[in-house]
Structure formats: structure tokens, C-alpha cells
Write a structure and sequence with these properties.
The protein has a single domain, classed as Four Helix Bundle (Hemerythrin (Met), subunit A) (Up-down Bundle), CATH 1.20.120.450. The protein contains 6 helices and 2 strands; from the N terminus they run αααααββα. The two termini are 29 Å apart. The protein has a two-stranded antiparallel sheet with strand order 1-2. The longest helix is centred in the last third of the chain and has 32 residues, at 149-180. A hairpin with a 3-residue loop joins strand 1 (137-141) and strand 2 (145-148). The chain is mainly alpha-helical and 187 residues long.
């Protein structure tokens, strides 16, 4: 796994290690529209897999894509997110990366393994794209527009870290809720 991905993966697994299967499925404040830890991990896996699938399509076609010019808005967003490292809050996930509302309870080890497999798979595809397309922009992100391979890697690292913060906030929220509702699973 690329060092950029490895460090982000370590952060995620460290934070996930504070949960058990029950607490990973709990929605903050009992609000089903707020994602549980399990749904956050599912979203990350879906996001990594969507990028991998799109890049594999580019590899099979033998070309990086069409319309690889950025708009001014895409340029500004790339500057803010990829250069500065600021992930804006409140941007909804695309439908293909939105987790199901009712997921079957899954252990933290399985969640971690699924995430690791998705990251390693995307990492291998990114390496293939780098060999075939070099520093060209390959594919389009729904918000950031066309990205180079190094930018795809940076985006997914920042995306993972963005959600690590959310998982940490969720752990703190659940810890407070346990004090008020002792029947809840401990975090």
C-alpha cells in the first residue's frame, strides 16, 4: 500500500478499534439520518470502489477520458481541497457512495478488512494508471473535475481523514449518551 494510504489507513483503524459491533451500528442521538460508524466505513468503501471502477474503465479503453478540462469552480475546489487540505462539511455524498439505511451489524475487524481490501485494490489500479497515463488527468471526480493520479490519491487520503474526524466525534457523542442512557452499548 502506498505510504500516503498507509498512514490514513492507520488513523482509521486506530479510531475504529475503539468501537465494538454494537456501538459501530449506533446512530448519534438515535437519529437514523445521521450515519453510524458502520455506514461511514461503508461510504468509504463505496467511494474507493467507485473510483477504482472508473479508473479500470479508463485503463480498458486505453485513454484517460474525455473533456479533461477544469472549470473555474473545479480549479478553485481543487485548490481548496487538494492543495490546502480543507474538506468542506455538509457536502452530500453521491447516490452511488451513499450507504444503505439499514446495514446488517458487522464486526469492526470485518469493517477494517473491507476498507483495507478496497484501499489496496484502488492503490493497485492507481499504480497501473500511473504507468499507462503518466501525469495526465484520468477520469472525473463528481465535484473536483478531472484529476491526476497523485491528486486521486491525495483526495482519498483527505476523504479518509475527514471521516476519521467524524468517527472521533461520533465516539465522543456516544460516550456522552452512554452516561445518560446506560442501556446503550459502551464505546
Amino acid at each position: 500500500m502506498h505510504p500516503v494510504f498507509r498512514s490514513a489507513f492507520r488513523e482509521v483503524t486506530t479510531e475504529l478499534g475503539t468501537f465494538d459491533a454494537t456501538s459501530a451500528g449506533v446512530h448519534p442521538y438515535g437519529r437514523p439520518h445521521c450515519w453510524s460508524v458502520q455506514q461511514i466505513v461503508e461510504h468509504l468503501v463505496l467511494s474507493l470502489d467507485a473510483t477504482r471502477t472508473m479508473l479500470e474503465e479508463r485503463l480498458s479503453k486505453g485513454r484517460p477520458g474525455r473533456n479533461l478540462h477544469r472549470t473555474r469552480t473545479e480549479w478553485a475546489l481543487q485548490l481548496m481541497i487538494l492543495s490546502v487540505g480543507h474538506m468542506p462539511k455538509g457536502v452530500g455524498a453521491p447516490r452511488e457512495t451513499t450507504p444503505a439505511a439499514n446495514l446488517t451489524s458487522t464486526g469492526v475487524r470485518e469493517l477494517t478488512e473491507r476498507l483495507e481490501i478496497a484501499m489496496e485494490s484502488l492503490d493497485a489500479t492507481l499504480d497501473q494508471c500511473r504507468q499507462q497515463f503518466g501525469m495526465e488527468r484520468v477520469g472525473r471526480h463528481f465535484l473536483l473535475g478531472p484529476l491526476r493520479i497523485d491528486q486521486w490519491r491525495r483526495y482519498h487520503m483527505l476523504h479518509l481523514r475527514h471521516h476519521v474526524k467524524q468517527i472521533c466525534e461520533l465516539r465522543e457523542t456516544l460516550s456522552v449518551e452512554v452516561l445518560h442512557h446506560p442501556k446503550m452499548a459502551r464505546v
